[in-house]
Design brief:
The chain has 246 residues and is α/β, with parallel strands linked by helices. It is 32% helix and 18% strand. The N and C termini lie far apart (63 Å). InterPro entries: F-box-like_dom_sf (IPR036047), F-box_dom (IPR001810).
Length: 246
């Protein structure tokens, strides 16, 4: 009589493909089943695509075992303390900044993860209405090396400043999404700094689109923004293939 194949009879590559469908909490639960699952459930290839949204996964006792995290989007204050002494590579980081204290913690967390390296995507939802409190955070985000994607939503009802910037940044961004009611100084700083590398730009809610700065992004391939008079400046961009005007 034939028996159905056991899950553990699969080769490592196939078993990793199955484990990739499990959430982070379940991966930790599977570790105790056997020695093989213990090793595979902590495989670096697996955790590169894992999204951690639960603080339970980041308990100090278990977070030290995680080789890397694909995406981290948990409440800022507990995450900052839990990751204080952990050298864990995080590929994508999502932070919500509501008050000045959040900005300080976000600044510290970004600096720490930048020192470890590996962060290629940063998402900032800003609700704090104290521009001075945001300066260290914006500076840390601006100085991140190797960052490829930056997503900023400014719901603070105040323009984000850039007068803290004293040195030129290193261009690296290929994708920028900026959601703000106006083209504030921080957006203009980002467009100037990353003009040589930007390929995809989305500008939401902006009626005063900085077309003159976008015209300097010679690698630009796609643009999404509101219609404005200055878009004719972009006609000369050699690689621009798509403009979405909602």
């Amino acid at each position: 009589m034939e028996t159905s194949p056991d899950l553990l009879s699969l080769p490592d590559d196939a078993l990793l493909a199955v484990l990739a469908f499990l959430p982070a909490r379940t991966l930790f639960a599977c570790r105790v089943a056997c020695r093989r699952l213990r090793d595979l459930c902590l495989h670096r290839h697996l955790w590169r695509s894992v999204c951690v949204e639960s603080l339970g996964v980041l308990r100090a006792a278990t977070a030290a075992l995680i080789p890397c995290i694909g995406r981290l989007k948990v409440p800022l204050r507990p995450a900052a303390f839990l990751l204080a002494d952990i050298a864990c590579v995080v590929r994508a980081l999502e932070l919500t900044v509501r008050i000045g204290g959040d900005a300080i913690l976000a600044h510290s967390l970004i600096r720490r993860l930048s020192a470890v390296g590996g962060v290629t995507e940063l998402v900032l939802l800003i609700k704090c209405r104290r521009p001075n409190a945001l300066q260290p955070l914006l500076s840390a985000a601006f100085e991140m090396r190797g960052l490829l994607t930056l997503d900023v939503t400014n719901n603070s009802r105040r323009p984000l400043p850039s007068d803290w910037c004293e040195a030129d940044g290193v261009p690296s961004l290929t994708r920028l999404r900026y959601d703000s009611p106006s083209a504030d100084p921080f957006l203009e700083l980002l467009l100037r700094t990353h003009a040589a590398t930007l390929q995809h730009v989305e500008l939401h809610r902006l009626e005063d689109v900085p077309a003159s700065l976008l015209a300097q992004a010679l690698q630009l391939r796609s643009l999404k923004c509101l219609p404005c008079e200055g878009l004719w400046r972009l006609v000369a961009l050699p690689g621009l293939a798509h403009i979405d005007l909602p």
